Amino acid sequence: MSAILQSIGGISWSCKHTWNRASINTFWCLLGCSIGDFGTILFFQLTGIPWPTLAIMSLAIVNGLLTSIALETLILSRQMALKLAFNTAIGMSLISMISMEVAMNTVDVFLTGGAILTWWVIPFMLFAGFITPLPYNYWRLKALGKACH
To answer: Which of 2, 7, 75, 85 is found 20 to 30 A from 121 (Cα to Cα)?
Structure first.
């Protein structure tokens, strides 16, 4: 099994340091994405505005991406100039963030039948949002030396 893991993508998949770093990066992306995503779903849920589920989820994905970029900019602005922090946040991996958002929203629709937040669905959404981009973020760190954060 170890030999198979070593050969996928031509990198070592057993580096604990890289898994830790990828997990931290993924967590920060998840925090930013979930703020915009959950906020959008909750807005439509509380106001009862009759938008189609696909439209709500699409807007939730966009808002999740925007809040993730905003959070990343805020975090990075403590280490660098604001303009550079924003440019770095924009340069984050959209593949990772989009896969995170799609996973979270797919779980929500699958488990609740629509764009609905309940206390019991949120942990499943967060788990799916974390685990889905994690291998990609690991690969990105290991193969390219780049990270979301």
So the answer is: 75
- Please report whether residue 136 resides in a domain: yes
Cα–Cα distances (Å) from 68 to 82, 94, 98, 128, 138, in that order, read 15, 10, 11, 17, 19
Residue-number span of the structural domain to which 48 is assigned: 21-144
Give the integer Cα–Cα distance in Å for 114 and 67.
Answer: 22
pLDDT, tens digit (0-9, with 9 covering 90-100), for 120-138: 999 999 999 999 999 998 9
Decide if 149 is inside a domain. Answer: no
DSSP SS3 for 74: helix
Is residue 95 assigned to a domain?
yes
1 is a domain residue: no
CB-CB contact of 141 with 21 (8 Å): yes
Count of structural domains within the chain = 1
Residue 44: CB partners within 8 Å, gap ≥ 6? 51, 56, 115
Q: pTM for this one?
A: 0.86
**CA distance linking residue 22 with residue 14, whole number of Å:** 12
